[in-house]
Prior knowledge:
The protein is 38% helix and 20% strand.
Amino acid sequence: MHFSQLTDYYEKIEATTSRIEMTNLLVELLKKSPPEIIDKIVYLTVGEIYPPFTGIELGVADKLALRAVKLASGQHEKFVKEEYSRLGDIGLVAEKLLQKRSQITLHMHELTVQEVYQSLEKIARAVGEGAMEMKVQILVGLLASATPKEAKYILRIVTGKLRLGVADMTILDALAILYGGGKEARESFERAYNLTSDIGYVAKIAVSEGLEGIKNIKITIGRPVRPMLAERLSSATEILDKVGGKCIVEYKYDGERMQIHKKGGDVIIFSRRQENITSQYPDVVKLVQESVLADEAILECEAVAIEKETGEMLPFQELMHRKRKHEIHKAIEEYPVSLYFFDVLYVDGRDLTIEPLEQRRKILEKIVKIGERINLSKAVYTDSSEGLERFFHEAVEVGCEGVVVKALGKEAIYRAGARGWLWIKYKRDYKSEMIDTVDLVVVGAFHGRGRRSGKYGALLMAAYDPEKDVFPSVCKVGSGFTDEDLEKLPSILEQCKIHHRHARVETGMEADVWFEPRLVLEIIGAEITLSPIHRAGWNVIKENTGLAIRFPRFTGKYRLDKSPEDATTVNELIEMYNSQLKKIVETPSS
Ligand code: ATP
C-alpha cells in the first residue's frame, strides 16, 4: 500500500468534525488495508508504532526533527527555525520547505506504508552512542522520497504529534462495523481490547479470524488487561444499598496500582495506564518471585511506600523517588514498598475474570504467601453501614485514602476496562493541612524492627481530657525521630515503664510496652481524622468513634517544660477537627 493513500485519509480525517464521518472514513481505510499490515496501519493512525505497553516510543525531539527537515530541504537553519516559530507545527514546516526543494533527488520513488513503518521502527529502536545521528539520517532518507504532504505526516508521527483525533475506541467502532457486522458486535470488540490493551492486535485478529476470533481472544501473560475501576459515593448507607446490602470492604491503599504478570521466574509490572514499570521495582520482582505460588499468574496489587523502621504506610508522593532512573537502588533502600494484593485475573491457564470476587479472593489467599512486605488487602465482609463506616475510619487512620466497597455474588466478575458499580470507592472527603502542632503524652511503645530492633519503633501518644482526668490515645508515631532520639528514648522512658496499661490511659490499641503518662512530645500531622481505635473525643463527633492524627511526625521538641496535664486537650482537638471541616465548607475547591 502506498503511503500516500494513507495520508490522503489522514487529511480527510483531520478535516472532519463529525465522529460518524470519522468512523466511516476509518472503515474505508481499514477495508483497503492489506491484512498483513492492518495492525501497523492502526498503530500509525493513533500516532504510535507499537502498543503503549511495550514502552517503545518514537518521541523524537523537535530540535532533532528540525535538523532533519533542514538537511532534507537544503534550507538554512535560521530560516527553518523562523518558519517553525511562525507556524508552530513541525509537520507544516516540513510540508512548506519540501515544496521549495530545488533539486529532485535521484532516489525519489513512491513510499510504501511498510517502508515508512520500518524506518520509524529503526528510529524508535536506535539507542546508545550515535543514536541521535542515526535517527536524523533515517529521517532524512525518508524525507528524500516523501512528497510534501507525506513529509507533514511523517514529521508529526515521529515527534508524537499526529493528533488526528482518532482514539482506540473509534478504531473499535470501525472494526465492529467492518468485521462484526455492525454495532451489536461492539461489545465483543471492546472486550477483546480490554483483555489485551492492543488495538493493532485486535485489528489483526478481526481481519484474519472475524468475529469468532475476536470472541476467542484470551487473557495472555505479557499483555496488560485494562483495569477494572470504581464508581464513587460518599455515604455508607447509599453504598450498601447500591451493592445489594452485603459487601466486602477493603482498605483503599494510597500507593501505585500494579498489574503483575508472572511466568516462571519472569515478572512484568504494568502501571494503571498499562506502562511497563518493571525497571522501577526490582524489589517487587523479587518479592513476587519468592511469594507468588503459581507458575503463571496475573495479579493486581497496590504498592505502598513504607517507613523502613516501623513498617508504617507513607503518603503516595514517596513513590516518586522510583521515577528517577539513576536513583532506583537508593530508593529501594530508603523507600521500600509493601504490596497489598486485591485481585487475581489469571492463574495457570485459567481466566479468572469471569469468576465472582469471592472465588478470586479465595484463590488469591492460596497463591500469595504472606510475608513482611507482602499481604492481601485488609478486608471485611459486612452488611451494616455502621460496620462499613467503622472500617472506613480505621483505614483512613492508618494512612489509607478510604475504602473500596466491592459487590458480592455471581455478577461480581472482574469487568476489565470498566468503571462500574461493582466497586465503589468511599474516600475521605476532606483534605486540609494541620497547621498547629500538638503536645502529646507518651503512654506506650512498640518494638522496632530492622534498623530499629532493640529500640522503640513507634510510640503511642495521648491527649489530656481534664473533665475525666484521663489520657485518651490519638496516634501511633514512628516518624521524625533521629538516630540520637531512638538511642536515648528507651533510657528516658525506662523510669515510667509499667507492666500494663495505665489506669488513666484509654485506648483501643495494644502497645508492646506501657508507660505512666509523663513524657510530653511535640507532634505534627497531616490532619485530624475520625478513628475507631483512638479514644480522644470518643462519641463526641460520632458514636463509637474518636479522633486521631493522620501521618503524625515528631517535630524534635521534647516538651520537658510541660507536665502531662499540660498536654493538648481533647476539646482542643475537637475544635481543630471542626475548624478543618469549616475550612472545607468555605473553600469547596480545596
Ligand atoms: P483514585 O485516584 O481514586 O485512585 P482511580 O481512577 O485511579 O482513582 P478508581 O478505580 O476510581 O481508580 O479507584 C480504585 C483505585 O484504588 C484503583 O485504581 C487502585 O489503584 C486503588 N486501590 C487501592 N486499594 C484498592 C483495593 N483494595 N481494591 C481496589 N483498588 C484499590
